[in-house]
Design brief:
The protein is α/β, with parallel strands linked by helices. The protein has 13 helices and 14 strands. It is about 35% helix and about 15% strand. It is globular, with a radius of gyration of 23 Å. The longest helix has about 30 residues. The strands form three sheets. The chain has a six-stranded parallel β-sheet with strand order 3-2-1-4-5-6, sandwiched between helices. Strands 11-10-9-12-13-14 form a six-stranded parallel β-sheet.
Length: about 425
């Protein structure tokens, strides 16, 4: 029997932790088209901070063999002897919030060029139900010349990576698995079960697994939208939202969601995948899209609240200096994809405000490239008319907030993270 050799396409926030984990028990070939990214990984450095350099270096190997270890490459030919292909590329939306499957289809085409008899292709990227078999498999068939469920097979096991979370790592999160046949589903499940200590759940088919993933984040999005709406209501009533949530949270079945900016590559994107598919079937999803509309508008709301507070304190808004703390999409993470902190920055700038962005975790080059915004890794040596915390990085607790404030400056804390005595208002 052929020994399992695993290829993982896409070595980002999802692919690298998975490749590292599988490399402890299998021969793994990690493939990415980003040469700079692969060069960093080969040198034992992960700039996403998802895998420590020490752990990464412990599994890296210099050549492909049957022994356990991770070989990173940009050469597609290095994948040809693998029998499992796991695709973990991004699935974003365009400027009109329509699903973009281009990375997924290009990865499928790449696999099709090296796919062999009886190989299994597993998708982890978040998609709408049906994408694996309706969109990706035809590409595999066309490129490889092989027949689906006769010459090769497919599986779907949705990623459950939580960027920046060092407690709930990939092996500690229960994994949903599925296959294109019952036998293949069992093989896929056994493969993941061999490394996922939290266990697995074998779904009855691929579409069920796809649907399960896309509703996980849609559910969170809707719940956060609800508390964001509550925050707006309680703000008008001059009631502290966090105090209300703390009181309500004393009931055993109250769900502990908090208001905030909802960005990132999952919660801020996945609902649009489900909405798109629903509309293709003639159904207009009202609750899902209402939640997205609420959350997409929170950056503008926060900026307007900051300006109102500044005016009440007597600050001249035009040409005022405002410090925004955080530009990543979540705390203690360098990922800037689809961050809603950008909405706060741009809305403040539309008021004629001079905005300084400080984020110790974000790569200034990536921020400039993605958003054309200058981000600093070091705290500026000046005082500000307002300070707005948008991301709860642990480093911000060590800041001397008072020394950064002008006499009548305001502090607005989106995350309710800073000591309350320092804050004029929280979301």
């Amino acid at each position: 029997m052929k020994k399992n050799k695993i290829a993982i396409l896409g070595l980002g926030y999802v692919g690298l932790p998975l490749a590292r984990l599988f490399a402890t028990k299998y021969s793994v070939v990690g493939f990415d088209i980003n040469r700079e990214r692969v060069a960093q990984l080969v040198s034992g450095i992960d700039t996403t901070l998802e895998v420590s350099n020490q752990v990464l270096q412990s599994v890296l190997v210099d050549e492909i063999s049957d022994k356990n270890g991770l070989f990173c490459t940009t050469s597609l030919g290095s994948l040809k002897d693998c029998n499992y292909y796991i695709i973990t590329v991004p699935t974003p939306v365009d400027k009109n919030n329509r699903p973009v499957l281009t990375p997924l289809l290009k990865a499928s085409e790449a696999v099709g060029k090296v796919l062999g008899k009886d190989d299994i292709v597993i998708y982890e990227s978040t998609v709408y139900p049906g994408a694996t078999e309706d969109d990706c498999v035809p590409v595999l068939e066309k490129t490889s010349g092989l027949v689906y469920n006769k010459d090769f097979y497919a599986g779907y096991s949705p990623e459950r990576i939580n960027p920046g979370d060092k407690e709930h790592t990939v092996e500690k999160i229960l994994k949903v698995t599925s296959g294109s046949t019952l036998k293949v589903g069992k093989k896929v499940d056994d493969l993941y079960k061999s490394v996922i200590i939290a266990g697995t759940h074998l779904a009855p088919n691929i579409k069920v697994a796809e649907a399960a993933k896309v509703i996980e984040n849609s559910q969170r999005d809707i719940n956060i939208a609800f508390v964001n709406e509550l925050a707006k209501i309680f703000n008008l009533m001059n009631i502290n939202t966090q105090d209300v949530l703390t009181a309500a949270g004393t009931k055993w079945n109250f769900l502990p969601f908090k208001p905030g900016l909802v960005g990132g590559h999952c919660i801020g994107v996945d609902p649009y995948y489900l909405a798109q598919k629903a509309q293709e079937h003639g159904y207009h999803p009202e609750i899902i899209l209402a939640g997205r509309k609420m959350n997409d508008g929170m950056g503008v709301y926060v900026a307007s609240e900051v300006v109102k507070l500044m005016i009440k304190k007597g600050s001249v808004v035009k040409d005022a200096d405002v410090l925004v703390l955080g530009i990543t999409f979540k705390e203690n993470c360098p990922d800037v994809r689809n961050t809603k902190s950008v909405d706060v920055v741009r809305e403040l700038e539309d008021f004629g405000i001079e905005v300084t962005v400080f984020d110790p975790n974000a790569d200034p080059i990536a921020v400039k490239k993605e958003y054309n915004i200058i981000s600093e890794n070091k705290i500026p040596n000046k005082k500000f008319d307002a300070i707005v915390l948008t991301v709860a990085h642990k480093e911000f607790l060590e800041l001397d907030i008072i020394s950064l404030k002008k006499d009548n400056a305001i502090v607005y804390d989106v995350k309710n993270f800073l000591p309350s005595k320092l804050v004029d208002k929280s979301l």
